[in-house]
Amino acid sequence: MDIDKINRSLRNPAYFRLHLFDSLPSTNTFLFNLGKQGAPEWSVAVAERQTAGKGRYRRRWESPAGKSLLFSLLLRPPLETRFLNLINLFTALTMAQYLETRAREHSAAALEISLKWPNDLFIRGKKLCGILLEASFTAERLDYLVIGIGLNVNQSPGDFSEEIRPAATSLKLASGREWEREFLLAGFLEKFYEDYRRFFPGNFAPLVQLYKEKVLYLGKPISVDAGGRKIEGIFRDLTPEGYLVLERNGRETLVSAGDIFGGMAHRA
Predict the structure, then answer these.
(1) Which of 49, 98, 119, 167 is deepest in the core (most CB within 10 A)?
(2) Are 17 and 105 contained in the same domain?
(3) Rounded (to 5) percent helix, strand, coil in the chain
(4) Same domain, 81 and 103
């Protein structure tokens, strides 16, 4: 990754403070620790390779060097904690919209990206991008948060381990061409900055509606693994806070976090 190329691709490079590394254990860990030291909002950590990349629920994120876009972004939003999950939805939606637009503009094969609540991006049933949100609180008030993003960009099938190969994809595999990662990062940061100022801290209803138009399994039966507790029902709606509304035996249950799978009593 070339930091000069990233800055040249940004229309407003002064908005962001970039930290670029050949290798880090985790961009989220680096930026979270920097946040404790008072790092400003819109600080960004980027790594060519992560040796201990983190996914949700302490899973490991695979990241072959030079093939992925691996970065984290620090924000200090004046946001009530009950709306924190909307950052997950917003980040996933913004990335999906951005990638679909870039594919159209550069004559690549059209990308049709779906979202799996709360923050995974899928193409034709295979995972393209994962997002990890970590927050720091002071006296029960949100101090800052770090959004970690792992986007599969130029991987071929052999770049994925046998374990995840059947379930993973990349922009290259989906579009048939390679993508310039510096340009992708710069363009996403610009769109994220502009849309964040439009939706936050209070214009949430349009955000939730746009997300619902791309989310998988809405109106269908799902299984939810919520912290080891498995529940089943119909994915009926999302609340204004971004919580999942699950209908079970005619009654509604709110789910604030968890993994969802299509169908009941099995993972799909």
Answers:
(1) 119
(2) yes
(3) 30, 35, 35
(4) yes
Are residue 174 and residue 232 in the same domain, yes or no? no
Last residue of a domain, one of 195, 212, 229: 212
The two structure tokens encoding residue 118: 């709360």
Residue 162 has which token pair? 């046998």
Query: How many structural domains does the chain have?
Result: 2
Contact 115, 215 (CB under 8 A): yes
CA–CA gap between residue 213 and residue 210 (Å, rounded):
5
This prediction has a pTM of: 0.93
User: Could you give the CA distance from residue 173 to residue 136 in angstroms, rounded to a whole number?
Assistant: 37
Expressed as residue numbers, the domain containing 255 is 221-262
Residues 202 and 228 in one domain: no
Q: In the chain, which ranges are E strands?
A: 17-24, 43-50, 68-75, 113-116, 120-123, 126-138, 141-152, 221-226, 229-238, 244-248, 251-255, 259-262
234/172 Cα distance (integer angstroms): 34
- Give CA–CA dist 15/6, Å, rounded: 13
